Amino acid sequence: DAGVIQSPRHEVTEMGQEVTLRCKPISGHDYLFWYRQTMMRGLELLIYFNNNVPIDDSGMPEDRFSAKMPNASFSTLKIQPSEPRDSAVYFCASSLGAQSYGYTFGSGTRLTVV
Amino acid sequence: QQPVQSPQAVILREGEDAVINCSSSKALYSVHWYRQKHGEAPVFLMILLKGGEQKGHEKISASFNEKKQQSSLYLTASQLSYSGTYFCGTGNAGKSTFGDGTTLTVKP
What we know:
By secondary structure, chain A is an all-beta fold. Chain A is built from no helices and 11 strands. Chain B is 0% helix and 57% strand. In chain B, the strands form 2 sheets. In chain B, strands 2, 4, 5, 9, 10 and 11 form a 6-stranded mixed β-sheet that branches. In chain B, strands 1-3-8-7-6 form a 5-stranded antiparallel β-sheet, with no helix packed on it. Chain B starts with a strand and ends with a strand. The chains are: A mainly beta, B mainly beta.
């Protein structure tokens, strides 16, 4: 298995631009999570899906952030408009069952907003 | 609520042992442990479910005491490859919240 695949690995964009991060979970995993990691705030859960349905988006910072999972093999996290404080590493993770199995993380997208 | 990890950082010599603790103020269903090396993604080590079970991975083992809402990670005879930041994740209602991490440095 190729694991969880994220793209792009690095993204540098100007403030105000739209940014789209992509994730392909492991086939057969029914949970997908988006996390953001910064030095100041650590690993923060933004949103998670179960069987393609968003379950909890209480961690999404504000309306500028949105996430979709149109099918079992693809998810996107969009930031529009982007701001410098959104600079972070964004990880996607998938799991077979959320509480009885560990998470497999993708390699992450390092986002820099200038 | 975020679990609390201690200590924040540990420096060891090869072959020494270490214990990393994780505690929560909320009742836990599961605890899972990850290691993250600089510039890489967290890698799953093990998960512990309700029942106080212990699990092992290489010379790394862990315990989970759900009554005390605590878990501990034991690293025995540490190797250079054990260096990294260790995170505990506490599972509840389908999602996991991660602690701030414990940075482990193993020196020759």
